[in-house]
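Q: Make up one entry.
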Amino acid sequence: MPNDAQTKFPEGSQPKRQDIVAAQRIIADISTGVYRSPAAAIKELVSNAFDADATKVSIATDAPSFRTLVVEDNGIGMSIEKFLDVMQHIGGSNKRISYQQSEVFKRPLIGRIGIGLLAVAQLGNRFYVSSSQRGKAKRFLAEVNLEPYHKDAAALMSMQPSGERDEVHIGAIKYVDNIPEEPDLHYTVITIPDAKKGIFSELTGLVRKAVGAEEILAVGKSQIKTFQEIVDTVQASSRADSALDGYYYMLWELGLICPLNYLPKAPFDSSKRKIINASSVTIPRIKNFCVEVDGVELKRPQRFPNKVAEKYGSPDPIVFPVDYDRKIAGRRLALRGYVYLQQPRIQPEELKGVHIRIRNVGIGNYDKSWLGYPFNEGQKFGQITGEIYVDEGLEAALNIDRDSFRETDVHYQALKAYVWSLLRKEVFPQFKQRQKHYTKVRQKRFKSGADRRFNRAIAELPAPMTGPPEIRSAAAPTLLAGLKNSSKHLLLDASKWKALIHESDLSKDAEERLIKVLQALTSAELLHDFDEEEFELLLKALAIAVQ
């Protein structure tokens, strides 16, 4: 339940009022809902907290009723003037300028305050914002009502002529400022007291339940203590969205897209199986920041190899480093990361493809097409995954939802060309070479082991033949020469043997199997009473049997 201090104006106060406006150039894009999922919307609030030098973000969902959502951080907070300015210029925040850094930890800024706050509108029509600035002994409390924003008229207004007016009224703010607060406290709390019914439906999986879908982890019937439990459940399943209900999937997705650290020994756990080149990738580490949802600390959910690949008979998984740093059209594009290959498949399904992260924030889901890779690689596409960490550049290509890119941007085009070249010239050629070498080595190893087992079996027979039958040119007049003189030494005529092999169309492997059969029969003393004609007939029958 929400804290009354964060949702009720102090007794006797006279709230002030201000309209909320948004630029017409963006309202058409956002009036129908910017974000594809609750996690994508909450990600913007987490990004704002990260930029505000928070060390912790706590999210309370009021599960399993999901009536009230609260997002609280211990960042530096903001003044009422800053808040009002942002709400007056939705979409106009320039916080994402390159090289701009946060005040305390000097973090590269990643969010946009105005769009982040507007993300809350996808979760509820009305919400409260309470914030206390670092070093100040006061706070403000604002009630934001975006009811007009949710009406169809908002979208229509953006398409109507407005003269010189370039803004659309989308709601109103009531606020009280200069509320006394302890001087050492600094925070921002966003409370949504009446979450939309669609949020309840999404998080409880009402639609899935209506068609009989059952999850392994589901709110109300499952209780986890660590994020590791979610990852373990997902890794043992082919798809995360079938293993998790809407609530746990939201946690998993937040772990995927928020600026967080990986689980221990992740993303590459070489204790499970050797991973070639795993140490060649520098994995980014997030300092002084964590996100908790209902007391569960989130982590990045990638961990390889997954269960199905740990003991699978295949070449060892391999990592291909991503490293690119160039100026494109006068702007620097610097990125790193990896492409990871394993057999028989990447699991879960949601981790197939490439995931782009700008300043450690995930942009959308994994792209299974690998930025539209123009060649058909068949099943190999299901055996590779990758992450690209963009340190600088590509921001201008972000769409307003910060969940997708404008593909005509020159930085995006350069990224695409680099990724395609890496796949075409390194990843897939090595895939084929490694598979061919592995198959050859495995066959040789299998043959060596089979020979040892065969010789041990021969040694147990009555008259062990210590080596294979000898095939000699003109050494003996018949195929059976020497057989009756010694059961341990069988001589075969080379010309007749070659004729038999040719007539029976035996491969080299089949010929070797035929020789082993003769060696076993001889060691068991089963060929003593055969004459030449009977022996040739037996050989023809055996040749057919071993084909």
The CA atoms of residues 343 and 383 lie 6 Å apart.
